[in-house]
Every structure is written in C-alpha cells, then in structure tokens.
Amino acid sequence: MECYMKTKMMMLALLIFVPLAGFAQYPEVQHDKQKEKQWRSMENGPWDFSPDWYYYLFHKNYSGASLSWKWRGFHSSLGVDFDESDSNVKRIMPVRVIEEETQRQKVKKVNEEYEKIEELHKEEVERAADRNVDLIYTSFKDDFNRMQDRITEGLLFCMTKSGGKMKYQVNELSRENEIVCQNIEYIHKQGVGYELENAKRQQAYSDAKTKMEGIVSRVAHLVGMAQCYY
C-alpha cells in the first residue's frame, strides 16, 4: 500500500512539473489587449478601456466611465461607456493637438509650394519684360550714328573724287553696310514676336559694332586711294 502511494505521488509530480518545464522551454508572447487599449487611450487612440466594469468600479474618475442602457433587443442591458471629458486625466498627446499639427504641416507645405510658384512666376514676368523692352540700344546708338556718318561721307567723297570710277567698290561697301544696319534694326524691334533677352541683344549689338568698325576702316582705306589716284 505504501509503495502504491509513493508511485501515485511520483506520477502526480511528473504531471505537474513536466508541463511547466515544457512551457519554460517554449515561451509564448501574449498580446495584452487590455493594456493596449489603456496605452492607446493615453496617446492618440480611441478613448476605451477593458475590462469595462473593472474601470467603472475601481477607476471611474480616471477612465471617465459611466453607465448607459444598451439597446440590443432581447439582449438589452446596462453597459459602460468611457468619455474623455469626464476623466480627471488627459492624454499625453490629445487627438486635437495631433490634428492641429498635421493641419499646420499641410498649410506650411502649401505655403512653401505657393512661394516657389510665385517666385517662378515673378522671374518669368521679369524675363518677359526683359525680352519685350530693349534696354541696350541706347548704349550703342551714338557709336552707330557716328560710324554711319563717317561711312556715308567717305563713300560720297570717293564717288565724287573718282568721278564715278570707284562705283563698284562704293556699291560693295554700301551693300555690306546695309546688311549690318538691317541686322541692327531687327535686333532693336520690340513687342510680340520679337522677344529677346537684353543679354542676347547686347551680344548682337556688340557683333554688329565690330562689323561696322570694319566697314569704317575699309571706307577710310578707299578714301585714301581716291585721294592718291584721282
């Protein structure tokens, strides 16, 4: 009898400790829904606690719990509701604060995009104004007029001095000078269809000035020939 009792006690001990040892070897991580609700309520989740009757009886002020009748047909009964406004504590970060910050960030981004677009629009307006108004011609105008006077007077002198015998040379220089003047006139045109940045106008006027100076030099050489041979 005594041996039987010892055997029975040993079997009971094995039944108790073997599952515990197996559990210790293979632990399971359990998800605590109740704690999750509490944490989310204090941060930015829905204001809800579980078990509801526990928070109503022992943490009513904390949870803002109150009783209300739940209509569910034959299963209607008293239930517990949680209202944040009835709680004596506040969230770590209220939903309203998060919404306001989110909205502020959205407004900030919209304002930044608007400023970028406004700056691009302003630059485009300035470029359009720059293309439509010739601000460079006045700085070249006097040089162009002075050189044209010298070319005209020189070619007229050559025709008069040679008695028309230098007509070919005079016509050739006149044709080249006319092309340069036409280019200057085209560059100086303004308005729709003639948009050109002033930086490009300046380069074009500078090139035209160089060509005109070359014509002046050739006219002066032709005047010297007329004086020597006629």
Written description of the protein model:
This protein is mostly helical and 230 residues long. The protein has a domain at 133-229. It is built from eight helices and two strands. It has helices spanning 2-25, 33-42, 52-58, 60-63, 95-132, 137-162, 167-188, 198-229; strands at 65-70, 77-82. The protein has a two-stranded antiparallel sheet. Helix 6 runs parallel beside helix 8. The model is unreliable at 17-30 (pLDDT under 50).
* Extended strand count: 2
Give the mean pLDDT: 77
Unreliable stretches (pLDDT < 50, length at least 5) are 17-30
- Helix/strand order: HHHHEEHHHH
- Tell me, what's the shape? rod-shaped
- Oligomerization: single chain
Total helix count? 8
Q: What characterizes the major β-sheet?
A: 2 strands, antiparallel
Beta fraction: 5-15%
What structural class results from the helix and strand content? mainly alpha
- Output the strand order for the largest sheet: 1-2
Cα radius of gyration in angstroms:
49 Å
How much helix is in the residues?
over 70%
- Cα distance spanning the termini: 161 Å
